[in-house]
Amino acid sequence: MAACLLVVDDERDMLEALGRILPRELADLEVITRHRAEEALAVVREQSVDVLLLDIRMPEMDGLDLLSAVKELDPWVTVVMMTAYGGIETAVEAVKRGAYDFITKPFEIPDLVRVLQKALERGRLLRENMNLRQRLPEQAGFAGFVGQSPPMRKLYDAIQALARTDYSVLIRGESGTGKELAARAIHELSSRGRRKMVTVNCPAIPEHLLESELFGHRKGAFTGADRDHVGLFAEADGSTLLLDEVADIPVAVQTKLLRALQEQEIRPVGGERSLKVDVRIISSTNQNLEAKIKERTFREDLYYRLNVVTLSTPSLGEIREDLPLLADYFLRAACRELNLPPKSFSVAAMGEIARRDWPGNVRELQNFVRRVVLFAPEREISLAEIKAVGDGGGRFGGQAPGPAAAGDGGIEPYLRCRDQLVERFTDDYVRQLLTVCEGNVTRAAETAGLSRAALQKILRRLDLQSRDFRS
């Protein structure tokens, strides 16, 4: 099926020229030309437009206003602005209103073609994902992932290739991008997948216990060691060991870990002989290991042992075209978790989700959708409900509540309103904190300036589980 390009310009000579040239330069392309804003809006109402090439100077309606009107009708159309009055302020304003790119007149046809090729590819992916949302009831992805964008397809290919090897893999990516999910996919698709993968949350284990947890200990090895303990390396024998947030392993333990990887054998704390183990190592981090090597807080030789192959998980900003699939998937999951009838997002609500930034990545989006489901009573979630839950960046809860109306027409007491506001802030703050820290309570407490015990007490009060925020 040919893609549809709508060109809108009040200069008829320009329209006629582009209408002749672009179908020759771009294969499988239907080009529609209109010289008035209302005519362009009528086209968008009547049919699916993949890319809109729009002049910013129009006689009846300003091009920026037309851009906003088009986005209200169809949030998924990809818009390229063109103008002879270009400037950085105009470009920024156009992007804020949803434009994908910007080209200044006069332009060379090859330059315009390159811009339109990128825009058409983006439009194709967006439409493809919209179709997948309608066709697939559960997910469009691979091994627990959701998404069909080029970065995700590249990730799927890499996972399958790595599953055929026994190499050590270092998975790198921002918080909330699914590093543990990638590790689990590699393991389960590998020859070791018949056995359970063992995961070590490195920063969650105190330094003085980490060696014992990794390698085990013998009875009497230290105070409190009243029995033999099998370490996680031995538990993972014949399987895969995931060192989650490997950058947080203390240097003293790094030395012993290096020996275990080199020799494929471990010696329990207090033990007199070493034990052979057959373990594949996958590690993950969101930190800059190269910088830590320079700071001498991470061993360079260990880095090369762990980093035989690097796998990168894309941020949500790199896979924006997958947002509809992800949001729908999390919406279905949240409805199942809460035993609610299925819900859906309105076109405007989904457009708002797609426009927002998600610094906490997929995990932040998932938690946001969970909150939306709680507060949306209707089967179709509206734009107003999306905005009411929060600002979409995980920042705390949108507008602060004002004094609540009392039954007699007055307002609620000050202390009650204050407590409600504090509780709402605390809930939003802790959710964002755990999202950023990937469910690591120790790191979250340090970030917030709280003791671990104090944060645990808050989690119990809010009925939050740190494991729900881990990738």
UniProtKB/TrEMBL annotation:
<dbReference type="Pfam" id="PF00072">
    <property type="entry name" value="Response_reg"/>
</dbReference>
<dbReference type="InterPro" id="IPR011006">
    <property type="entry name" value="CheY-like_superfamily"/>
</dbReference>
<dbReference type="InterPro" id="IPR058031">
    <property type="entry name" value="AAA_lid_NorR"/>
</dbReference>
<keyword id="KW-0597">Phosphoprotein</keyword>
<dbReference type="InterPro" id="IPR027417">
    <property type="entry name" value="P-loop_NTPase"/>
</dbReference>
<dbReference type="Pfam" id="PF00158">
    <property type="entry name" value="Sigma54_activat"/>
</dbReference>
<dbReference type="InterPro" id="IPR002078">
    <property type="entry name" value="Sigma_54_int"/>
</dbReference>
<keyword id="KW-0547">Nucleotide-binding</keyword>
<dbReference type="GO" id="GO:0005524">
    <property type="term" value="F:ATP binding"/>
</dbReference>
<dbReference type="Pfam" id="PF25601">
    <property type="entry name" value="AAA_lid_14"/>
</dbReference>
<protein>
    <submittedName>
        <fullName>Sigma-54-dependent Fis family transcriptional regulator</fullName>
    </submittedName>
</protein>
<keyword id="KW-0238">DNA-binding</keyword>
<feature type="modified residue" description="4-aspartylphosphate">
    <location>
        <position position="55"/>
    </location>
</feature>
<keyword id="KW-0804">Transcription</keyword>
<keyword id="KW-0805">Transcription regulation</keyword>
<dbReference type="InterPro" id="IPR009057">
    <property type="entry name" value="Homeodomain-like_sf"/>
</dbReference>
<dbReference type="InterPro" id="IPR003593">
    <property type="entry name" value="AAA+_ATPase"/>
</dbReference>
<dbReference type="GO" id="GO:0006355">
    <property type="term" value="P:regulation of DNA-templated transcription"/>
</dbReference>
<keyword id="KW-0902">Two-component regulatory system</keyword>
<dbReference type="GO" id="GO:0003677">
    <property type="term" value="F:DNA binding"/>
</dbReference>
<keyword id="KW-0067">ATP-binding</keyword>
<dbReference type="GO" id="GO:0000160">
    <property type="term" value="P:phosphorelay signal transduction system"/>
</dbReference>
<feature type="domain" description="Response regulatory">
    <location>
        <begin position="4"/>
        <end position="120"/>
    </location>
</feature>
<feature type="domain" description="Sigma-54 factor interaction">
    <location>
        <begin position="145"/>
        <end position="374"/>
    </location>
</feature>
<dbReference type="InterPro" id="IPR001789">
    <property type="entry name" value="Sig_transdc_resp-reg_receiver"/>
</dbReference>
<dbReference type="InterPro" id="IPR025944">
    <property type="entry name" value="Sigma_54_int_dom_CS"/>
</dbReference>
